[in-house]
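Data deposition worksheet. Section B asks for the primary sequence of the deposited chain exactly as it was used as input, without tags or linkers unless they were present during the calculation. Section C holds the resulting structure in token form. Section D is free text for depositor observations; keep each observation to a single sentence. Incomplete worksheets are returned to the depositor.
Section A, Depositor: J.P.
Section B:
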Amino acid sequence: MEEKRHFRRYRKHSEFSLLIKGRPFTAETLDYSLTGIGAIVKDSPHIKEGDVVTLNITVPPIRTEGKIVWTKRMKSGLKIGISNNGDLKGNLEDYALADTLTGFQRTNGTGILEVVSNAICKRIYIKNGDMIFAASNRDEDRLGDILLKEKKITQEQYDQSVEEMKKTKQRQGTALVRLGYLKPQELAAAVTHQIEEIIISLFSLRHGSFEFKEGPLPTDEIITLKLSAANLIYRGVKRINVLNDIIGNLPPMDSILCFSTDPLKLFQNISLDMDGKTILSYIDGKTAINHIVFASNLERLSALKTIYALLSTGIIEAIEKRVKEDEVQEVMAEDIIEEPEVKVDTEIVNMIEEMYDKYKDLGYYGVLGIKQYT
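Section C:
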């Protein structure tokens, strides 16, 4: 029986070497994911379910050990499913970040997803499948720099907070609160926004690698921020501005778009812009992508980018044929579009206000209730 699939499988045909009990076999990949590989082996009289295999695939680069979890005899050879026992890692070119984040959400895993691209290194902290924190080595991702860029503080306030940091050896968020430029509850909202921006910025990376290091987080005292995966994926994909990258990840333009049949995917916590609402209004299980793009009157890149973003969240799906009249879903765009109530989580505000009373003994990570991860 095929393994339960949490991560998206990508179709790819590539010859590779398969080693079983010291004996080499030539195989061809049919599809792959972070946790499994589907392949065809022609010369396979001795291969059976449960065998441990060594994989050496060039495209995508996968070199690890795995176990055959199911087999199926075909005319072209033995079709096998291989469970990847190695680390959960790969290249951004081979695995869409949205699919990776959605996969971890489904597995309810806990650990740190590290993304590296040249000198950039960013980490997403995941607890029980939910993204709860993020960190970056980029100056532009620092709290003060984000606040300054978005004109939430002035250059003078920024400079004064830097001087305060030097005097007190505290972090900038603490310094801004100490100087009265941010209220504790504003710091909570600012930190949440900072974390979201770090995660969203990852979707613009065209090259790089990632690795998920499963295990307990550095401390059990991490403040769990209320981050919506669907919101972050939607906004992150919308940051992609290269048309070829968008088209390369879309299904054929004559594919029909329909709402997901999975309620967990359909009704997610997401705040859509006007482009998203416009595209959703044309989803009926009958209309193809190219017709929706034309009918929406949106600029082509914006329309395609929005469709790709909605597909990435799982709210809509692409099918090859029109849905039959008696099978059309009783779902309207209005059922999905729900304006979220804008508020700061009371528990987080109370925690930060309590920590603010003790800020003299706490640094930036202390204010957030976490230990610095190195």
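Section D:
The longest helix spans residues 184-201.
Residues 326 and 338 are 27 Å apart (CA to CA).
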